[in-house]
Amino acid sequence: MPNIKVFSGSSHVDLAQRIVDRLGIDLGKVVTKKFSNLETCVEIGESVRGEDVYIVQSGSGEINDNLMELLIMINACKIASASRVTAVIPCFPYARQDKKDKSGDEKLAQLMKKSNEWKFRSRAPISAKLVANMLSVAGADHIITMDLHASQIQGFFDIPVDNLYAEPAVLKWIKENISEWRNSIIVSPDAGGAKRVTSIADRLNVEFALIHKERKKANEVASMVLVGDVKDRVAILVDDMADTCGTTCHAAEKLMEAGATKIYAILTHGIFSGPAISRINNACFEAVVVTNTIPQDGHMKDCPKIQCIDVSMMFAEAVRRTHNGESVSYLFSNVPY
Fold first, then answer.
1. To the nearest 5 percent, what fractions of the chain are helix, strand and coil?
2. Residue 280 · residue 303 · CB < 8 Å
3. I want to staple 57 with a disulfide (CB 3.0 to 4.6 A). Which of 9, 87, 92, 160 is the partner?
4. What is the C-alpha separation between 98 and 337, in angstroms, rounded?
5. Alpha-carbon span 17 to 92, nearest angstrom
6. CB of 181 within 8 A of CB of 204?
C-alpha cells in the first residue's frame, strides 16, 4: 500500500501490530519517551511528507498521558507535512463526560446544599467536547473509533468521524460460542443501551429485556428494576463498556433471581478498573466477553471468565477503505474475513 504510514502510540502496540499485519505493511518508526519531569517527548523516525498517516492510540491505562502523546504525535506528523492525519482511537477517552447531568456526586451535593448551591451540576464540564477540540486543534483530519458511549459525540467534531460497531463481531461470537443462543434473551443493564440491545435482538430474532437503574453517585448503583421475562432462558448482557463492573454484576444477580439459566456479559470496552476483576470472579457469569480495543492480556490472566474478541481486522479494513476512498458502511453490519 503506497503512501500510507501507520504509527502506534504506547497504549496498545499489540492492536497496531495486528492492524499492520493485516494490511501487509510495517509499523512506522516512532520513539516515545518521558523527560525526568514527566513531559512527553515524541520523535517520528521516518519521513511522512505527503503520506496518509494513521496513528493508533486507545484511551486506556494512563489515559491523560496517552491522550497527550496522541496529540503530540498528530501535531508532529502535521508539521512534518503529512497530507492527512487520521487518529485511530479504539476506545474514546472521556466519552462518559458528554453532557451536563441533572444529578451529580452525593458528597458534592451535601456541600452545595449548605451554601444553597444545590444546582451545582450546571457547572459540570463536557470533557468529551474538549477532547474533540484538542484533537482538531492538534491537526487530526479524520477520526476512526468504535462504539462511542454516546453516538452524538460525533457531532462534537467538525472533521469526519467513523464510529465502527462491535455488533457484527459480537453476533458472530454469540452464534459460534453459545449453543443455545436461539433460546436466549438480550439484556441491557441500563436504559441508555436499549437501542444497542434491540438491534442485536432483531438480528438474532430473539427477545430483549432491560434493567432500569438509579444512581446515587458515579460508579455506584442504588436500585434496579428488570423489565422483561428471562425465566428459563440464557441471558446475554450487552453494554458498550465496563469500568468497575458494579452495574454489570448487579444486573447478573437480578437476572439470576429472575430465573435465567446462564448469564453471559458482552462488553465492547473492558476497562476493568478498581474492584472489577474480583467482582467478576465472584459473580455468576459463564463468560465475560470483551474486545481488544483495550489491552486485555493482564485481565485474562487474573480472571479466567474473561474472553476476548479480536476487532483488529475491522480497524484494518476501515484504514484500508479510508486510504483507498471506499465506503466504510459495509463494516457496520459485516465482519471482514
1. 40, 25, 35
2. yes
3. 9
4. 34
5. 19
6. yes
What distance, in Å, lies between the first and last C-alpha atoms of the chain?
19
Q: Which amino acid is at 58?
A: S
pLDDT of residue 112: 61
Strand stretches in 228-311, DSSP E: 234-242, 262-270, 287-291, 306-309
Compute the distance between CA of residue 58 and CA of residue 52 in angstroms, rounded to an integer.
20
Rounded Cα gap, residues 335 and 324, in angstroms: 19
Residue identified by cell 487530526 is: 140
Sign of torsion over alpha carbons 200, 257, 308, 210: positive
Q: How far is CA 236 from CA 31, 177, 308, in A?
A: 42, 12, 16
Report pTM: 0.91
Q: pLDDT tens digits for 282-293?
A: 999 999 999 999
pLDDT tens-digit map of 103-131: 556 666 666 665 555 555 578 899 999 99
Dist CA 198 CA 185 (whole Å)? 10
Instruction: Tell me which residue of 212, 191, 219, 213 sits closest to 106, measured CA to CA.
Output: 219
User: Of 206, 215, 211, whose CA–CA distance to 193 is shortest?
Assistant: 211
114: buried, middle or exposed (CB in 10 Å: 19+, 13-18, 0-12)? exposed
Query: Between helices 127-138 and 63-79, what is the axis angle to 10°?
Result: 30
pLDDT at 2: 76
Q: Which of 248, 288, 247, 240 is nearest to 268 (CA)?
A: 240
Is 85 in a helix, a strand, or coil?
Answer: strand
